[in-house]
Amino acid sequence: MGKKKTDLFEGGRKLPVMEEFYTLQGEGFQMGRAAYFVRIGGCDVGCSWCDTKESWDLNKFPPVDVKPIIARAAETPAKTVVVTGGEPSRYPLDYFTGGLKEKGITTMIETSGVMPLTGQWDWICLSPKKLSPPHHSVYSKADELKVIIQNSGDLKWAEKNAGLVSEDCLLFLQPEWSKTDEVMSQLTDYVMQHPRWRISLQAHKYMNIP
After folding, report:
1. 20-59: per-residue pLDDT in tens?
2. 76 is catalytic
3. DSSP code, position 132
């Protein structure tokens, strides 16, 4: 990260936060778990099926002081924060996560891993994207690999990434929301034939929560 951008975020004391809210995790291994979500704006990966495209333009999200965010997260019963985006790997997160850990908060991140990760993390969900593959250093750190599936060709991409994570990393295939009806039967069959994989669903959309 260049000096100009680092200075803009004051070494991570400020971040371009798009929104923050308390809800239930809707996807992957942590599905159903209460957590305080912090969505950081800015992403240039450009997934056509992204359901938060409004997060892409960094210019819309002036950096804000993270101390009040830490305080608000600490007030929630769950004492768990999920950092998502946008693409959070593009920002210095050591200061933010350090402050969360001082409050006894469990820290989780959802990332495509396009940049080496900073920060202290209790759980790392890596969701690799074809347009901007993960930085090689992120694979070994991932606790969970969650691959979005639009078509049968994406299964090859999923297996390629599964070969790069650790043996302990949990593997999830998640149907792209608009293609769920088209790919679900194929995914269920695939998981039954390759049981190291599990299915992830966007349960928050069924529950009608953020």
Report:
1. 999 999 999 999 999 999 999 998 888 877 878 888 888 8
2. no
3. B
Quote the pTM value. 0.93
Per the domain annotation, does 196 fall within a domain?
no
| 10 belongs to the catalytic site | no
Q: What's the structural domain count of the chain?
A: 1
Q: Is there a catalytic annotation at residue 204?
A: yes
Domain at 72, CATH number: 3.20.20.70
Instruction: Kindly state whether residue 58 falls inside one of the protein's structural domains.
Output: yes
Asked if the model's pLDDT at residue 2 lies above 50, the reply is: no
Q: Check if 37 is active-site.
A: yes
The pLDDT of residue 171 is: 98
Q: 27, 47, 97, 125: which one is catalytic?
A: 47
| Residue 176 forms part of a structural domain | no
Closest to 106 measured CA to CA, from 85, 126, 78, 130: 78
Cis amide leading into 86 (omega within 30)? yes
pLDDT band at 127 (very low <50, low <70, confident <90, very high): very high
Measured between its terminal Cα atoms, the distance across the chain in Å is 31
SS3 65: strand
Domain that holds residue 133: 3-144+153-168
Give a yes or no: residue 194 inside a domain.
no
pLDDT tens sequence across 186-206: 999 999 999 999 999 999 988
Any idea which residue has 């990966």 for tokens? 45
